[in-house]
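Incident review: delayed structure delivery

Summary: a single-chain prediction request sat in the queue longer than the usual turnaround. Root cause was a stuck worker, restarted by the on-call engineer. No data loss occurred. The affected request and its eventual output are reproduced below so the record is complete for anyone auditing the incident later.

Affected input:
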Amino acid sequence: MASQRKIEYVIFDMDGLMIDSERVYTDVTNDILALHGAKMTWEIKAGLMGLPERAAAAHLLSFFPDIPLTIDDYLAQRTAGQDASWPHVQLLPGVARLVEHLVAHGVPIAIATGSLRRNYERKTAHLQHVFARFEGHVVCGSDDSAGRGKPFPDVFLAAARALGRTVGPNEDGGAAGVGEDERAERARGLVFEDAIPGVQAGKRAGMSVVWVPDENLLSLGRPQSGEQPDQTLRSLEQFVPEEWGLPPFTTTEQSETKV
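Output delivered after worker restart:
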């Protein structure tokens, strides 16, 4: 069930939520592992999603202790493979329609991604008809303002501040040191995420969270403990804005399943 909160601003994750980058991550990683007779399963990948780059690499390689790759070696090979693919990565269904709708109705939007700034630029350069609509309100994992990586709430709070929202210090939602007005301001935000650490980060930021997981991740089951999303969708095409106090799609917008 959707939250009954009245949403005033929206923050998007990017990888696997807005763009089909998870396919690139999987293919490039498995190309590297195949040279050593190994393969990354979705059970392994689920534990990587949403983590900062080096933490994700360390977690991956921990499953393959016999492979003679350091974290730096793996990241160098992965970066080369990914850089060749980013100019061709595509938007996921429902993204362009939702972004355009929110902008048309004056709803403030931002991006909070664990992606390095250099990678963000490579991934989005050919998709500026959507990403330019954020008007620079983008916080990347390598930015000084990003703070700790997900599942900590820092990057979502930084994105809210980029929109001019007064959300208080980088503590978990409702923690000591966050005033009542600041908690109320956090509660006016809605986060879209595809990864479990991102869901945790959004909830710890005191915001509502819509989880849009990959079908492969969803098949592993919902997290049984910890922070839970307020709503789970299979695609952003299923999002109903008025359930969150946002303006509804027009008839024309509702008919646009692909953009």
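Verification: The longest helix spans residues 71-85.
Action items: add queue-age alerting; document worker restart procedure.
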